[in-house]
Sequence to fold (226 residues):
Amino acid sequence: MDTAIKDMLETQRPGECIPLSQRIRERLQQAGARFHANDNIAPFLQDGEMELLQHEVAGKLQAVLRALVIDVDNDHNTRDTAARVAKMFVQEVFAGRYQKAPAATEFPNCERLNELLIVGPLRVRSACSHHLCPIMGRIWIGVMPSKSSNLIGLSKYGRLVQWIMSRPQIQEEAVMQTADILESKLRPDGLAVVLEADHYCMHWRGIKDASLRREFLALVTNRSMT
Ligand SMILES: [Zn+2]
Fold:
């Protein structure tokens, strides 16, 4: 039997059903680990739990659809929506919360490169923590290696970025997380991360007030200049 399922059955008393999400939450709290939307919680998940978690999320999403008074039993368009969205959240767009960091083995700077290395633009896909709406953009990374720095393969930058972006994010925090992971891996003399992104919550919801309108116009102006 799958260890996660066995574990669940063993810790469950008859007639009691503790949601898996609650059990994972308790592990995190016991360890004093933060589990904000843009945190990775992979070390606290056991084999086989992702599937069960996705199942739990699907059930809760079905309840959301019902609360929106959508006839999920008879509407063929939304019959499987909860399961589809749960899969999209857990396995795709928020996978960076649940999956371990991609392998990006660092190697010493044997050639003693000391010129600015610029990576990008790399495509960025994320979602805002506030509305869970898409954020689409481009990221540039500048690395100034020193003799004692490490290097990683060029393709690894994209994988690390995607791992960080595949979580509900706030643009500034996403940039900080990207910089932090590169800093710890590379220990460069200098590091710059620039993210230019479009926040679809603004487009999707429509412009509701003057400050949003100004923000939108500033974005549009910036975009037309680049
Ligand atoms: Zn938003």
Summary: Residues 128, 130-131, 133, 199, 201 surround zinc ion (CB under 6 Å). Strands lie at 107-108, 117-128, 134-144, 150-151, 168-169, 190-199.
